[in-house]
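Q: Structure tokens for this one, please.
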Amino acid sequence: MKATAWLLLLFSLPTNRNTERVAVWRRLKKMGAVQIKTSTYLLPDEPAQYEQFQWLAQQIRDYGGDSTLVRAQEIEGLTKEKVIAMFNDARAKDYAELRKSLQGFIGRRKKIDAEIAGHAATSRRRPQYRAATRSARCEAISKQNMADTATSRDRPSWIRMADLEVY
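A: Here is the predicted structure, written as tokens:
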């Protein structure tokens, strides 16, 4: 892992802003941020992540909330190893979710193939799109991965397996 510094986003939104809360949560999840306390999220201090947190901090203020972006060299009570483990645990959950989705997709694809064996190849467009979406999701997760783990090394085989079932 390259990061030796961290970005912390601390924020609050008015309680009546449920739609905005969900939007912020989804954006944080998409960024790969890890929650360390209520309304406190963490990313490695790298230019792309800094820009994403800056954008989100402004979005939170536009929603009527408060936000603060902090750069920190260390976080008391959290060792670098613990922080890396938090990121890896989060990515492991993402990979497990993706893998489950791919296994379901492959099962459905086999069933559909059996049912539409005589139909034209155009009937396969929607499943191909889903496979491309899953492949893109896998790529996004791998970009958020903090370390080389067994789960991240195994992921290409899941995507290849799903791609072979579609094409």
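A few notes: The CA atoms of residues 113 and 124 lie 9 Å apart. The chain has a mean pLDDT of 79.
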